[in-house]
Specification:
globular; 5 strands; mainly beta; single chain; five-stranded antiparallel beta sheet
Amino acid sequence: MNTIVHVQDKGQDAVSFTCDEIGRVVDVKPVFTNKWLGAIIPVGVASLCAVGKQCPIHSEHLRFGLLDYIITKIEKI
């Protein structure tokens, strides 16, 4: 089952991240960018990834960090 993590829109290219069952980013909307493909968002850890919190992410661009955007919605698809 995939999970879509929506973050607040501050004009950035990525406002939703589709993650696979282990939290690996497989799609980004509205503007697709390879920058976040393969990054990990810990969607299975409610204490880290929850509505109202900054979005945690681990990638080659941001090591175990937080995006400067608050999670507004998490949906399972």
